[in-house]
Design goal:
354 residues, alpha+beta, Endonuclease III, domain 1, Nucleoside Triphosphate Pyrophosphohydrolase, 2 domains, 15 helices, 7 strands, 42% helix, globular, binds iron/sulfur cluster
Length: 354
């Protein structure tokens, strides 16, 4: 017989005992401040814990409260986020901080149902902040929890599929305890992060193996099922490196769309055309020597960049030239380059150029 929520309640005590004994000491686990927990959750989405720790500590030192973040300049927020990627999250964070101050005087609502009303806070983050900061009896589901549930129950469903999400939220709501929800939610995620991992789950060290269908049936590593991969798209790019007096010319991407508002070297997409670099540059270049060939991946796009030295055929005054789509030119000294809010590929190029 497959275990249901009633049988699964039996595993709560051993899972919590395991979590109390082995949980990792992470900076955001030493606080109940909803602001800090929210920042950590935003950073942890799609980024590894080890990579987040330093960024988290610098970010909360620079913006120690929701008010400080709300009042900050957008570019300063993007710079503090620099290196984490997914800059849309930084913009959403900034906008949500402003909304929190405007609507709630900077005081976080304590239940997930209220938090989720704020733009930029989804059901997972709402559940995490409510349960961890306020110990509200609110559930959460992330990729770790989906994987753990699929294995416990032997669900033969694709990773991140709508049906897996629906069932996972239903089960999470049924299992979340009236008291100690924050600890329970973190124990579930910790199990997924360190024992019930996507590859090679450590079933022999698992505190709840006795309740696990996938372990019993030898399906642990197979669940949840793999998703079909979308076809990749090859993109060819000509990247201009314009140097003058030890400074580089960068262009700011439009405020909407992919990599919105980030800085990059002036680039022209030569094939297939207008996929990731949809705007025609207004400036004209004389191109010189090839400096490098760079490969870079953005979601399903495989970018093949040819990087060339270039000079402008007419002078550009720093910060003044605006092209038809509102991009603007910025001069930057080489030392400052690494601290700017750059695209991932511009960051890669900076490392090559120095
Ligand atoms: S027994 Fe294995 S598959 Fe099941 S929850 Fe534990 S680690 Fe995951």
């Amino acid at each position: 017989m497959k275990p249901g929520p009633v049988a699964l309640r039996e595993l709560q005590a051993p899972l919590l005992a395991w979590y109390r004994a082995v949980q990792r000491d992470l900076p955001w686990r030493r606080t109940r401040d909803p602001y800090r927990i929210w920042i950590s959750e935003a950073m942890l989405q799609q980024t590894r814990v080890e990579a987040v720790i330093g960024h988290y500590e610098r970010f909360v030192a620079r913006f120690p409260s929701v008010q400080a973040l709300a009042e900050a300049d957008t570019q300063a927020v993007l710079e503090a986020w620099s290196g984490l990627g997914y800059y849309r999250r930084a913009r959403a964070l900034h906008a949500t901080a402003q909304e929190l101050v405007a609507r709630h005087l900077g005081v976080f609502p304590q239940r997930a149902a209220e938090l989720v009303q704020l733009h930029g806070i989804g059901p997972y983050t709402a559940g995490a902040v409510a349960s961890i900061a306020f110990d509200a009896p609110d559930a959460l589901v992330d990729g770790n929890v989906e994987r753990v549930f699929a294995r416990w129950l032997g669900w033969e469903l694709p990773r991140a599929s709508p049906e897996l999400k629906r069932r996972s939220w239903q089960l999470a709501d049924e299992l979340v305890p009236a008291a100690g929800a924050g600890e329970w939610n973190q124990a579930l995620m910790e199990l997924g992060a360190v024992v019930c991992t996507p590859r090679k789950p450590r079933c022999l060290a698992c505190p709840v193996a006795a309740w696990c269908t996938a372990h019993r049936t030898g399906r642990a590593e197979a669940l949840p099922l793999e998703r079909a991969k979308p076809a990749t798209l090859e993109v060819e790019l000509l990247v201009h490196v314009v140097r003058e007096g030890g400074q580089y010319l960068l262009v700011k991407r439009p405020e909407q769309g992919r990599m919105a508002g980030l800085l990059e070297f002036p680039s022209i997409e030569t094939a297939p055309g207008e996929v990731l670099w949809p705007r025609a540059l207004q400036a004209e270049f004389a191109t010189g020597d090839e400096l490098a060939r760079v490969r870079h991946a953005i979601t399903r796009h495989r970018i093949h960049a040819r990087v060339v030295e270039a000079r402008l055929l007419r002078p550009v005054v720093a910060g003044e030239l605006a092209d038809a789509r509102g991009a603007r030119w910025v001069y930057s000294s080489p030392e400052r380059l690494g601290q700017l809010a750059l695209t991932g590929m511009a960051r890669k190029l900076c490392a090559l150029l120095h």
